[in-house]
Amino acid sequence: MYRPTSRNEWWLCTVLFTQAILTTALEIYILVEWQRWVTPFITQVPVSCMIPINLGILIFAPVYEFILVLDAIHNKNNVLLFSICIFNICRFVYSVMQYISVEDTTTGLFDNRYGTPTLIDTTRNLWPQIQPAENLVAVITALGSILVCLFVYLLHREYSWVIYKSVQGSSKPRRRYLFYEIFLVLIELLFYFLSGFIIQYNLVYVHFKEPEYTLTMLLIPVAFVIMLLGIWAVQHERTIFVVAVIICYLGLLSYLVTRIIILREAVTAGKDMMFFFASVCVVLTSATVLSTVICIQNSDRGFKVINQSKNGHALESYSIPPGNSLTEPPRSFSRPSSRLTLD
């Protein structure tokens, strides 16, 4: 696994790591309190899955985000860095949605606590106990988003010069390589949102009904394999495999559209959450297919050479004496004109 080298890389990883530790601890606390509050009869209703699912998604999100940032600084991918900013902002939006969902669910269960069968511990109201933790999750994520955007901007300035040297100042190779970077970002983000949607849809709406439950859950490992195959095929410019990946994602797009149509007419808990993830998946899948097609058109035009050159220039950049700037070209070079502006 790649280890951060520059000061800004360390700061960015530190912010994301600290945010992950704090939010994960708070989410685990909420989950433990929820499990202590409900009774075994809660599994009889689909709403029993909503809170654990939402908490699980928010626990997995910072872990996946930290993996993405390591990949971004390893590959000097400015597009992935900016997408991490958007990803963190989406986490904040989701934490606010989770706050509303948890409040509605716990309040509704407590108001109906004397129903049969008994679903919760009737001696205490859970919401006042976990509300401060829910508030802290949203606040920490918001502050983390601000700091992440700041350090991503600083890293963008470093990486722009590295990439500029890799393409030797030429705008056409840089434009072609930009679509490759966008493809990597889209396919990696799609896997997270698709996994989140499948887990919610399967546990809440399908709710263990066979064979749909098993077949739907199998989509997660299949999507992971297709993601790895797509990255490998585009990096090595294997057109046949890239076409196969495109066909798979077109099938996924059809599946997502049908699920949205079904959910539109359904009456189920967590409908807004599922719509949010499904809609993001549709947008990401469509954009992934489009960027993959563009990558096919740009095949045999130096992706592998640029990757190797970029890694070499990155090592050079980090061996520059302390007095020199990482974000500026040597004095023998003039500042690039606006037409060569990067990212």
TrEMBL record:
<feature type="compositionally biased region" description="Low complexity">
    <location>
        <begin position="329"/>
        <end position="343"/>
    </location>
</feature>
<feature type="transmembrane region" description="Helical">
    <location>
        <begin position="44"/>
        <end position="67"/>
    </location>
</feature>
<feature type="transmembrane region" description="Helical">
    <location>
        <begin position="12"/>
        <end position="32"/>
    </location>
</feature>
<keyword id="KW-0472">Membrane</keyword>
<keyword id="KW-0812">Transmembrane</keyword>
<feature type="region of interest" description="Disordered">
    <location>
        <begin position="319"/>
        <end position="343"/>
    </location>
</feature>
<feature type="transmembrane region" description="Helical">
    <location>
        <begin position="213"/>
        <end position="234"/>
    </location>
</feature>
<dbReference type="InterPro" id="IPR040410">
    <property type="entry name" value="UPF0658_Golgi"/>
</dbReference>
<protein>
    <submittedName>
        <fullName>Uncharacterized protein</fullName>
    </submittedName>
</protein>
<feature type="transmembrane region" description="Helical">
    <location>
        <begin position="241"/>
        <end position="262"/>
    </location>
</feature>
<feature type="transmembrane region" description="Helical">
    <location>
        <begin position="274"/>
        <end position="296"/>
    </location>
</feature>
<feature type="transmembrane region" description="Helical">
    <location>
        <begin position="79"/>
        <end position="100"/>
    </location>
</feature>
<keyword id="KW-1133">Transmembrane helix</keyword>
<feature type="transmembrane region" description="Helical">
    <location>
        <begin position="136"/>
        <end position="156"/>
    </location>
</feature>
<dbReference type="GO" id="GO:0005794">
    <property type="term" value="C:Golgi apparatus"/>
</dbReference>
<feature type="transmembrane region" description="Helical">
    <location>
        <begin position="177"/>
        <end position="201"/>
    </location>
</feature>
